[in-house]
Amino acid sequence: MVNTSNLAYAYENEQELAFPDIELTPGEHLLVIGPSGVGKTTLLYLMAGLLPPLRGTVSIAGTELNSLSRNEMDRFRGEHIGLVFQRYYFIRSLNVSDNLRLRQSFPKDSNDKQRKHELTERLGLTEHLNKKVTALSQGQQQRLSIALGLIHRPKIIFADEPTSNLDDANCTKVIDLLKEEAEICKSSLLIITHDLRVMSHFKNQVIL
Amino acid sequence: MKLGYLAFRNMVSKPLNLLLSLLLLSLSVSLVTFALQLSRQLGGQLNKNIAPFDMVVGAKGSPLQLVLSSVLHIDVPTGNIKLKETSMLQKHPFVQTAIPVSYGDNYKGFRILGTETGYLDHYNAQLSEGELYEKSFEVVIGSNVARRLDLKIGDHFISSHGLAASDVEAHDEHPYTVRGILKPTGTVVDQLLITNLESIWEAHDHGEEDHHEEDDHHEKGDHHDGDDPLEEEGETLEEHDEEKEITSLLVKFKSPLGMVQLPRFINENTSMQAALPGFEVQRLMGLLGSGVQTINGIALAILLVSGLSIFISLLKTIRERRQELALLRTYGLRTRQLLRLALLEGLFLALIGFVLGWLFGRLAIWGVSQYTQASYGYALQITGPDKIELFLLGLILVLATIASLLASRSIFKLNVAKTLSDA
User: Fold this and answer.
1) Domain that holds residue B36
2) CA distances from A197 to A95, A174, B327 (A)
3) Are B173 and B29 within one domain?
4) For residue B80, which of B191, B201, B161, B174 has the smallest C-alpha distance?
5) What are the respective helix, strand and coil percentages of chain B, to the nearest 5?
6) Do B329 and A51 touch (CB under 8 A)?
């Protein structure tokens, strides 16, 4: 599902970052773990096509990202990749329901009400659908962030430090949620973290 | 979900920005539409009312005043002229028709005009019910008069002296009888009570006896000092034609030569003055036009400021929403779609601002109409958007597009990865 080879990236005036090759089969879960500052988020953005690599290639579901034009990349990412960010990004002018609906509308409009209903039901967001996103608690925002990462049934879910701000109980909960949801929509799951608590939850690990 | 919905939500999520931009925009739109409508409708009204007559002959004074009073019925007359003196005009080969008018009384603020029935033909006024006046103190009334004063055929009323509503000097010896009601004409006729010339003369013969007053507009001449009882019967009026006075004579030329020769002849060789309604109204509209231009200038300045306000408010929100825009890029929206999002927000604002401003402008026209209706009997029409206003809408949309695109330049440079990593 995800294959990288010889990936490297360099920020301006900074040392080159080289990454080990990553291989992920469909439906597989993988943990990429490493300390701060080794370029974990950079790796994730390279794999999601948000950054162009200095060297090397990324292919997702058989598609070589380098071969895609800018517009094709936007579309491919929107359709096949789900991103769960470390910080929570929402459209603040929309309520919870509309944020989810918006995610379903691009790049192609699916308007899968059933999917939205089931997902919000499982994530305990149903009674908050009409709330402003700013009115949600931290935990609710976390769950909405996860929902936005996978409501469109992506082939691969990339999660960036999903547990860094959580206590132990919630950390386990969020990891279980991600794994469960990834399984339900048959997505591959790749989590990037420096949080050692997560290690015990994954068999497949890459250490940076 | 459509981008338009998101643009709309984004727009209303900043109510204060929205309010400021809308306020400026609608202010400028309402100023422009109000000024244009007002000048156009006044111009239209005036031109319609003066159309039947080419020249007015009356007492010396201001020609504009003569036109305003005798043709448009919104000012006091310049004085009276002798009917006899106008006889040469009545027979002049250049003159098609010459209609004497005389007035000086009102009923509840509506002017009573003494004239020949030919006057009505000039305005194509037709009876909706009843018939034309035949005898003195019979009137036909304009549609607006009938409606506003709730007068019906056969009703009697007593006129008041002067042109403004008052009960002080009522001519109560001579009640008028309504004989006919006219169809609406959209002209000044709708605001008038029309009777024959004799009624005015007779009413004022009494008026002078009773009040012993000097009235420079309506005095019928010093020949009434030794009052002639016969004259009160209205049967020997013709014998005294030489002494009779009218307020003015409304002239329609047969030949354009009349326009060239007669006014100068009258002004130079008689004690009367000739005024050309077309010329005077054009002069008046010229004055009004410069006022309209000033208002338009001010409105244009406000429009530019409102464009600037749209630009600044969009620039600000786009900066504030950089992360949301980056998020949308990860959802698969292209740069072009983000631009469209900003553009839609600007265009919505422009459209709502225009509609609000247009409505305010019409509301102001309605307000002014209430006033002019009450004071001058002229009502203004509330009409749908016209060509110039649609052009204004186009201009505003172009302005909003430019403002939005200028404000959105940063979208081209949006670095999604960097924006989302920056804490």
Assistant:
1) 3-46+283-421
2) 33, 12, 28
3) no
4) B201
5) 60, 15, 30
6) no
Q: Does B421 touch chain A (CB under 8 A)?
A: yes
Q: Which amino acid is residue B236, in one-letter code?
A: T
Looking at domain A2-207, its CATH architecture is 3-Layer(aba) Sandwich (3.40)
Question: What is the three-class DSSP state of A56?
Answer: strand
Q: Which of A87, A90, A94 sits opposite B423 (nearest CB)?
A: A87
Which ranges of B51-180 does DSSP label H, i.e. alpha helix? Answer: 63-70, 87-90, 118-122, 143-149
Q: Is B49 exposed, middle or buried (0-12, 13-18, 19+ CB in 10 A)?
A: buried
* pLDDT tens for each residue of B125-148: 999 999 999 988 999 999 888 988
Does the structure's ipTM exceed the value 0.85? yes
- Which residue has 């695109």 as its token pair? B405
Distance from CA of B416 to the nearest CA of A (A): 7
Tens-digit pLDDT profile for residues A44-78: 999 999 999 999 999 999 899 999 998 899 999 99
Nearest CA distance, B355 vs chain A (angstrom): 24
User: How far is B397 from B242, CA to CA, in rounded Å?
Assistant: 68
Q: Is this prediction's pTM over 0.95? A: no
CB contact under 8 A, B334 and A109: no
Strand order of the β-sheet with A188-193 is: A81-84, A156-160, A188-193, A29-33, A205-207
B1–A48 CB contact, under 8 Å: no
**Number of Cβ pairs < 8 A linking chain A and chain B:** 71
Contact B13 A75 (CB under 8 A): no
Window 54-93 of A: residues touching B by CB (8 A cutoff) are: 70-71, 74-79, 81, 83, 85, 87, 89-93
Whether B129 and B263 map to the same domain: the answer is: yes
Q: How many CB atoms lie within 10 A of CB B334?
A: 18
Cis link prior to A35 (omega < 30° from 0)?
no
> Which chain A residue has its CA at the smallest distance from B417's CA?
A50
Closest chain A C-alpha to B331 CA, distance in angstroms? 4
Is B335 contained in some domain?
Answer: yes
